[in-house]
Fold:
Amino acid sequence: MPRRGERKPRVRSTAPKPMPTQEPDHIGIRTLTRTRRGAKASHMVDPAKYRCSALAAQLADEWIRYARAMARIDGGADMAGAVRGFARFVDKHLPTLGMDPAGARLDGCGVDLVEVIHAWEEDLRQHHGLRSNSPYAKTNYLLTLIEQRSLRDASMPEALRLRSQAPPAYPTWKGEPLDEFSNAERIALRDAARNAVRALEARLAWGRELLARGVDPREGGWHEPANLVWAATHPRLLTVEALKPQFRQNVLSWPEPVKALLPTGPDGTLLKRGFRYLVAALSALLFPAETDLQAFRVLLMLGMSDTSPEELHALQLSDIEFTDGGVRLVQRKNRAHRVRADLHPSPDPEEGAATEFAGDGAWDVPGLLRRLLASTELSRKVFPDAEPWLFLAVERRLRGVLDADIAYFKDRERRFGGWISEQRDAAGKPLEISKPFEIRRLRKTTKVLRAVALGGTVSDLAGDDHHVEVYRMHYAHGTTAHILAGRSINRAQKWVFERMSDVVRPVLVTEEAEKHVEEPEVAEDLGLDIEQAKAMRAGKLDMGLVNCRNPYDSPHRKDTKVCHVAPAMCMLCRNAVVFTSQLPRLLLLSDHIERMRIALAPPHWRALWGRQAEALSEVFEECADLVPAARREIVELGLRLDLPLGMRTEFDR
Structure:
């Protein structure tokens, strides 16, 4: 521990100085150059090409400022395109109004740019169509630049300043919401992707065997497939220019082992001929291409319900961490400006169940990621300068040389739809998948599977990666969700209708049958056994209103305790047995129910007493000749209806 006076003065860190800003040149061509992944790209606006050169120069200056201030990765190429498009329209539109385009300026009043912008929006809408978002995007870029200028230039007309702060006239096209794939389509896509992964792993295994036997073709010969595969690991060595001197121009005269590397049809005919396809075939033996990675993409989307396509596509090796319980992914969602870590656990293997599938790997998320990394391992070794993307594809790129880069999945044949069109089912027929072929539909499919598995409320189904409103607007509209909702409604209605149609009524025992109820034949006809009949005759099963076959087998409770709703629900119970000697009690109950009809609201009375009133009326109809005698007995003996206090508290108010 330092002594007093030995402590060193604390040096506080200072805030970094702002980087010097370079003002754009006000004369000449406006150019912005960006460098990304070693490649340079330039975007420019030449005001001198347009008659409205002053307006084009002002907008181009704002484009340069905005792109630098916002550190746009693409250099604001779309904004530069909007500036050029608007300048061309001004040159064409103003002469039709008898005005000179040279007088158009952001800080001048000679030309009403508000009307010009409105006319440009109309022209964009007619050119691009009603379902295009380009009019909205281009207008929004232009208004953004004008608004930026208005914050700095006080001489701008007030009308133009207000227009720049308003949104474009035509909003974006929402379109029809995408529906999920059906369960049969999901299974077909899953099986096709698994077969594609197995085929890829088998092809790569064969390529690695050839690579182990190969040597430099400049020493071992160019006509040996193993040597050609070895050359594929040296991209600068395997080019079309290097192959042409080694083979004849006619592909049919090539050696048979080399010709066998080219893609062939079912009948053995060559589908693609040429040196370019030979280079591609050799690359496919060692490195996955974009089309090969599409199968992994499909399986991962089907297995990760809380991951969007853009989050999956943006994964790098540093975002993946394998643990004992599974794999931890750091996912970035640009639209939501969110970075989150998610753990995908490995499923616990069941006893006697196989944990590995054909293809040497599991099909869960951790297993798929391990198989994908194993497939691209050689790509990362041969191309060490490539960025560590998870979906690293090797293709013939600039000047026909093999190179590794992220799989963009944008080319027509490499998109999700192109991959589907190439797949075949077990019978060799094309997959029957509904259009559109959108990868986002896979995400909706996994959401629906989660809804089917979990059930519950919308908040349960939305999960932790969506708000309830987002789930309702974008996922709950699907066909499967509607079918499940319809089934739930039908099931509830069926239950209600069965309860209404399956009316339970007590058994009515006539006066003559009551005298002989202990005889086996009579008891059997009434559905009683001898012990129950004797107990009823002795009054042991009298529940205060009617008799009960078994008070411990009540349909109104699931345990074996004594019935807790007697005598309130006795007239609606399958265990009730009515003797004619109990008619006075039933008449008193009927009178009580009628009094409640006056005291209670009609819906309330119907819910509490309606069914019992119907049951009592049926009993009185069957023994109508005994009802007058029962009425006299009530009056002569002064009988009263004794109902439990709990029944009066629950039902009479």
About this structure: The chain has 27 helices and ten strands.
